[in-house]
Design goal:
By secondary structure, this protein is α/β, with parallel strands linked by helices. It contains eight helices and seven strands; from the N terminus they run βαααβαβαβαβββαα.
Amino acid sequence: MFTGRVWRYGDHVNTDLIIPGRYLDDYDLDSLSAHAMEDIDPSFGQGVREGDVIVAGRNFGCGSSREQAPAVLRRRGVGAIFARSMARIFFRNAVNLGLPVIICPEAHDMLVAGDEVRVDLEKGRLARVSDGRTIEFEPLPPFLREIMESGGLVPYLRKRLGT
């Protein structure tokens, strides 16, 4: 369980908005992550804190399959992404990198930017702290939670294979 603030966005936030292509010649993830979301929300890079959540509309992460998009969000400390729907390649890349992604249309309906929320991925609960209003979502299956807790697919496999 963790607590964070909401960063709320609309529909069709593509990977070029998450991390603009003009920065992709920089392979240093710390440097690259400073530019996360800057074309859609210039305050995100400096304002996001560990455990904050992104709440988005439809088709979050559409566009190119660049792995850097979920990587920079994870590096900035995003604790989870809740969206009405998500591009499948973004979803898979996020899982591979250990960033929890949840399909939860109700989150976009209920929450506004700046709300403080408490997230329980194991039980499938998202609660707004100010009034205790709770949304239930399909909890991540245990094997996906293990991947998230390991820090992504590669660390998970290393641990499982003992390498």
